[in-house]
Amino acid sequence: MITTTAPGQPATSQPATSVAVAPAAAPAAARPPRLALLDGLRLVAAVAVVLFHWTAWHHGHWGSGTAREAWPVLSRLSVFGNMGVQLFFIISGFVILLSSYGKTPARFIGSRIGRLYPAYWAAVLLTGALVLFFWPETGVSLSLADWAMNLTMFQQGFGVPHVDGVYWTLWAEMRFYGWILALMLLGWLTPGPLVAFAALWPTLGLFEPQITAALGGNWAEQVLIPEHSPLFAGGMALFLIYRFGHTPLRWAVLLYNVVLAAHHTGVTGAREALELVGYQVPEQAYWGIVAGLFALVAALSLTPLRSVSLPGMALAGALTYPVYLLHEIWGWWIISVLSPALPRPVVLAVALAVVFAAAYLVNRYLERRFGPALGRWAGRGVEAAGRLAGSAVRSLGRSAGRSAGRGLERVGPDPK
């Protein structure tokens, strides 16, 4: 799935073991350098997704016909805006390794919770209130229990509908984080195992239909993430080149993932451009876009551009996540309210301004204020849980040993 619509959602919705005692994947590292232009690129990706949902996606909130009909020229470009999600996943494969390398599993879990949940909780509460109480015309069918389940970020894994369809990408991200955590716990967050994983994981995804047919259920699709694993894995290969240098093997793994990602995106992209917007786009167009996205991330991370810092890039990166979370349904609501009274360009500008202002408030007063503390608290909680689990396992081992010893004493020595 390459759009920001969750599979099975209504048409109006877009798109562990003993952690504390596990060895660290690598010696503690200094804070990773900030690649400022990647922050700016993330915001560009978010704006592309916004324009896709507002000016191309087949909703009727502009007042007459579909968004494509309301924006006949802009939609020719914004039909490709959902490729911002592909870019998110490539950058995520790079940045998650960059930020997690050298962390313990507990610190990794804590950092992800602190980073993801404050803005997400705000978005779920605000958007849920809108669709449940003030704008049921969205067609999103939710119960209060569904709304509460969405606060976990795991609702898709339990078949619960999203409050906002864009949340499907977070489920993909969470499963990718699960793979990174597994590599940490195994002590494989090192160059050799990582390059092998970046090659083998997407390869297994090619066989997901056969695995599913043989074993049943949908666990293979959930675990392997076949459509998007080449994007994450390609980002991982870029990180390995960035951090440890150029080798033919690392470049081969990167190019392999570019080819797989282009194939998956071309197949679904062309189909969904027709079904969701109404344009016929050849698969080859998506091949070029995916190759270009990888090339862009490579240019910003592997060339002297990685040292370029422009004013406002940190703020751009900080606004990306809340803009993405808040834009779709709230943007549609603003468009539906203002379209009868104002020209479309003005409505588009106002909707963008409102979403960016809301994203700034969420970042300034929730993410910055509560995110770091939540991350530290969660990390300490995971460490404590790991210590308790380790203590319980050792206690069980000692009890089993004592029971076995008493049993041998009762049996007595072997008469032979």
Automatic annotation (TrEMBL):
Assigned GO CC terms: membrane
Tagged with keyword Nuclease: no
Question: Which parts of the chain span the membrane according to its record?
Answer: 40-57, 77-98, 119-136, 176-201, 248-265, 285-302, 314-335, 341-362
Task: Give the signal peptide, or none.
Answer: none
Q: Name one Pfam family in it.
A: Acyl_transf_3
Query: Could you tell me the superkingdom of the organism this chain comes from?
Result: Bacteria
Provide the Acyltransferase domain boundaries: 38-362
- Keywords per UniProt: Membrane, Transmembrane, Transmembrane helix
This protein's record includes keyword Transmembrane helix: yes
Q: Name one GO biological process term.
A: lipopolysaccharide biosynthetic process
Molecular function (GO) terms listed?
A: acyltransferase activity, transferring groups other than amino-acyl groups
Q: Which PANTHER family match?
A: ACETYLTRANSFERASE (PTHR23028), ACYL_TRANSF_3 DOMAIN-CONTAINING PROTEIN (PTHR23028:SF53)
Q: This protein is called what?
A: Acyltransferase 3 domain-containing protein
Provide the species name: Zafaria cholistanensis
**Taxonomic lineage of this organism?**
Bacteria, Bacillati, Actinomycetota, Actinomycetes, Micrococcales
